[in-house]
Each structure stands twice: as structure tokens, then as C-alpha cells.
Write a structure and sequence with these properties.
By secondary structure, the protein is α+β, with helices and mostly antiparallel strands. The chain contains nine helices and twelve strands. Helix 2 packs parallel to helix 3 and helix 4 crosses helix 5. It is globular. The protein starts with a helix and ends in a 20-residue tail after the last strand.
């Protein structure tokens, strides 16, 4: 049986890169970070709980990817560069095969973004994984939720709704072919944090948020914090490739309210349209203009002809009773 310390040593300890931002990594009472002079730290935590965010039989490699990806996505949404992260988790048992796969999935994604594991906490209990990420960004350049301005365009990265479609597949809400279900599941289980796009948007965008609970709800946070409203052109919302094969009604619904895609929703002045497109190309991430920030509060939907559309807006809330 692995001891707590063997487990940490074997699966979660690697020497930090010399000359990087980590002065001291795993193994002491605290890790030490040395942010570059003039930079601010961006810090975010996300916890994933078995039975709530993932199924008990979840593949450990993909689970690790998702746990870190959703945290990196928060850094992306602020325009921050990842530096390091901590991992605190409760595990029912120290199972070597599970731990090896979890650790491989974790470091594979961490290495893609140069984000180092610097510490954490390990305890026995029902599976529960909590990651805290640390990033950095120059003063006054964060893409904050309260920074949308009247007249801004609203943009979405990548595509929406395929993760929600995978959930519909699991719940037997609709029939998908095996290939469609497999593609949708990739979106649900292994989201891509839009770090490069967030960095490229630093001098260009005003406000940003990552879409974890559904566009309507997450854009709603920007609107509320910025004290503004918006109109979205519903049929210009970029549906994921699998969702694009479904009915218009389903496309409208899932692009607007489906969660778990981890795309960025951001606002930028119309004068920045060309710059936003260049940022998208630099980040190899498609960007689509979908609406406009307005002085009238609330969220309005229109179709391609400009006619009002009404859809019941529900985004995910853990504490709301159905
Ligand atoms: P303490 O008793 O001071 O809280 P711990 O015994 O919990 O320290 O942890 C020992 C060291 O291992 C610390 O540096 C801690 O950050 C690190 N650590 C514990 N669990 C993990 C983990 N899951 N991943 C990475 N580092 C970990
Ligand atoms: Mg501890």
C-alpha cells in the first residue's frame, strides 16, 4: 500500500524548471513563486466532485485533463499567462493504475501551457479534486467582467453546444450516432482552455468570461457586472460540428444555454474588429461576432432578420431546485 508521501513523491513531484517562475516546488511547507516585476498574479480555484461533475467510472487521464483545463480556462478568460497550480484532493484509495493515468493526464496538459504543479494536499475520502491555478498579467490588462462598454461587439471563440449534446446523449434525451456521440464526448471530457486567445486579446478586448454554465448565464454575469444589456443574434451563435447536424430549435437552445464548452465570450469595440480576427488567427482559434452591448439592461435575442426570438433561458446553477 502506498503511503501518502510515497504517492505524492511518485505521481505528483517533478523538479521545477530552472529560471522559471517557481523558486520552490512540491515538498516544503509552502511553494515559492517569483512573479516577474510589474506583473499581477491571477488566481482561481475550481473543485470537481464525483457524482456532481463527473461519473464514478470517469477515465482518470481525461478527468485530470478536465480538472486542470477548467482552471486554465479561468486564466484564459482574464488574459493571464499560466505559471503554476496546486492540487488538493480526496481519494477513496491509493490505486497505482488510477494514479498513474491521472498524473499522466495532468502533466500532459500542464506541459502544454508551461504550468507547474507546485503543491497540494492529499487525503482519503470520496473522490473530490480541487485545483488552484496561478497566472500573471500586466497591471490594468485583465479582461474583467465589469469592463464591457456600450456599443461593444460580443464575440465567441470556437463553437458551442457539443458538450451539452454529449450530456443529452448520456441522458438518452436524443438519438446520436456512435460517431456523433464520440465527437461530442471529446468536447465534454477534454475541453481546450483558450489560453493563447486570452493572451492575444489583452490589448484588444474589454470584458471576457469563459463559458462554463451556458452563454446566456455567463454573458449575464458580464452584463450585470458592467451595468449594461445586450442583443444576441441567435442564429449567428457558432454551433459545434455535431450540434450543427441537429434541428434549428436544438441548435438555438444548446448554443445559448449548454454548459461545459469552456469557450470565451468577450466584448471589444467595433474599431477592433480586424484586430480581434488577427488575434483569433494568431491563436489558431475561430472567433465569431454574435451581438452587441447596449445601454438597456437585460438580454434580447433576435433572428437573422432582426425579429425578436423568445427562448426560456436556463443556465446551470448547483443550488437551484428544478
Ligand atoms: P503539510 O502537512 O505541511 O500540509 P503535506 O504533508 O500535506 O504538508 O504535503 C507535503 C508536501 O507535498 C507539500 O509541499 C504539499 O504541497 C505537497 N503535496 C501534497 N499533496 C500533493 C498533491 N496531491 N500534489 C502535489 N503536491 C502535493
Ligand atoms: Mg497538507
Amino acid at each position: 500500500m502506498l503511503s501518502e508521501f510515497n504517492l505524492i513523491e511518485r505521481y505528483f513531484t517533478r523538479a521545477p524548471k530552472p529560471a522559471g517562475p517557481v523558486a520552490l516546488g512540491v515538498g516544503d511547507d509552502c511553494a515559492l513563486l517569483r512573479p516577474f516585476p510589474g506583473m499581477q498574479l491571477a488566481i482561481s480555484t475550481d473543485m470537481l466532485v464525483e457524482g456532481r461533475h463527473f461519473l464514478p467510472a470517469a477515465d482518470p487521464y481525461k478527468l485530470a485533463h478536465k480538472c486542470l483545463a477548467v482552471n486554465l480556462s479561468d486564466l484564459a478568460a482574464m488574459g493571464a499567462r499560466p505559471l503554476a497550480f496546486t492540487l488538493a484532493f480526496a481519494l477513496p484509495a491509493a490505486e497505482p493504475t488510477w494514479l498513474a493515468a491521472f498524473s499522466a493526464g495532468l502533466f500532459h496538459l500542464a506541459d502544454q501551457y508551461g504550468c507547474e504543479l507546485i503543491g497540494g494536499d492529499t487525503t482519503k475520502g470520496p473522490l473530490n479534486i480541487c485545483i488552484t491555478v496561478f497566472g500573471e498579467l500586466p497591471h490594468a490588462q485583465a479582461l474583467r467582467r465589469d469592463a464591457a462598454q456600450i456599443g461593444d461587439d460580443i464575440w465567441i471563440s470556437g463553437s458551442l453546444g457539443d458538450a451539452r449534446l454529449a450530456l443529452a446523449g448520456y441522458r438518452d434525451e436524443l438519438k446520436l450516432t456512435d460517431a456523433q456521440f464520440a465527437d461530442a464526448m471529446v468536447r465534454m471530457h477534454t475541453p481546450t482552455p483558450r489560453i493563447k486567445l486570452g493572451l492575444a486579446l489583452r490589448d484588444i478586448a474589454h470584458a471576457a468570461i469563459d463559458i462554463s454554465d451556458g452563454l446566456a448565464g455567463d454573458l449575464g454575469h458580464i452584463l450585470q457586472r458592467s451595468g449594461v444589456g445586450a442583443t444576441l443574434e441567435i442564429d449567428s451563435l457558432p454551433a459545434g460540428p455535431v450540434l450543427a447536424t441537429q434541428s434549428t430549435t436544438l441548435q438555438r437552445n444548446f448554443t445559448l444555454t449548454g454548459g461545459d464548452d469552456y469557450e470565451l465570450c468577450f466584448t471589444a469595440a467595433p474599431a477592433q474588429r480586424a484586430a480581434v480576427l488577427v488575434a483569433g488567427r494568431l491563436a489558431a482559434t475561430p472567433v465569431t461576432r454574435v451581438g452587441r452591448i447596449e445601454a438597456d439592461t437585460g438580454l434580447r435575442l433576435i433572428d437573422a432578420q432582426g425579429h425578436p426570438v423568445s427562448i426560456a433561458l436556463t443556465s446551470f446553477d448547483h443550488f437551484r431546485t428544478p
